Amino acid sequence: MKRLLVLGAALALTAASAQMQGNPNLRGEITIWSWDVAAKALEANIPGFNRLFPNVRVTVQDIGNQATYDRGLAGCAAGGGDLPDIYSIENNEAEVFWARFPNCFTDMNTLQPAASTFRTQFPAFKWTELTVGNRIFAMPWDSGPVVMFYRRDIYSQAGVNPATIRTWDDFIAAGRRIAQATNNRVKVGAIANGQDDEWFRMLANQNGCFYFNNEGNAVTVNQPGCVTALETVKKLIDAGIVMQGGWNEQIQGFKAGTVATSMFGAWYEGTIRSNAPDQSGRWGVFSMPASRAGGIRAANLGGSALAIPASSRNKEAAWAFVRYALGTTEGQVTMLREFGLVPSLLAATRDPYVAQPQAFWGNQRIWQQILGTLGSVPAARGTQFFQEARAIMIRTQAEFVAGRYPSAKAALDAAAQQISRATGLPIAR
Fold it and tell me: Long-range pairs for 130-134 at CB < 8 Å and ≥24 separation?
């Protein structure tokens, strides 16, 4: 057994070395800020990294998603002195930093090898929000293709076959059957109404709509695809088949078996698996329903990158870790295998692990299905005004669900006007 373990480690080192050369002379300490399973995934890469760079000490600090963003903004505003060596950043928030603090992060094209040498190794859309002109401020990490994570046993008990759920109307019908079969103990899903607008964003994205157009120069939140999305959110809530609650409440719901489906970006796979290990074999995956028969059953939620603050005292070591974790198949597949972070590195998506049945998911080949949706995801751009627009939409969605607007179109017209005033961008006609 020891011989097999040594051989396995040697093969892993060889695979990583084929994409990246180690350096035992590189020394020092680096700190990374991240959150939740993303932080755990980065920690899982430390042993592999240290086989190539044994004299670099890596510390990952899980400070929470919102705290990472808030402390990043505060650190940049203060001149960068209180920032880590590597900073986790969500793609749709990235342009906030580049626009407001253009000197806070390192242009990775000034490092060796230059980040531009990695361009063809990732999908083009992953670079859009990470570059300004010829400067590259972050390296693509994961993507967030949206799927439905569902409890096989609860669906089976209610006589619901997920293969028959093709539209949101089908999903509502399934929710009613699940409620009836469980004496209303179990909800078919969970929406963070009043706390987030993630369901609106996912549904809008699948309909080819978002807060802004892809050029980032106009507000489009009141376009038809977004109207349909907001109408669907209210329809789901009004049907009484979904729980309303935020991040923590949703985790408690699926752990307790009172929520039968979680719709999120595929990175949520690791959240379910790490929080409910005792439910192995009871879960499965199916594609998100479409707004209409024959419609798109794909969207993206989330997706992150790693940046190096300009104030880092060990940029060489930080860049080495970023390149290992994100630029090698070994690094990316480690995070996929351990914590469900979907790789953006094209070589990693072709790794044999992607085709393997997954025991936790009832031996379903979930990664083939999840990655198979990427080509159908409509493009969307967060822009530097993502947070302002999101805050307005969280409030607008809650008010519309509460009946304070006569229609979804009226609600989104009001939201578009507020976003336009907050950002200075015109409303698209």
Answer: 130/91, 130/94, 130/305, 132/98, 132/102, 134/109
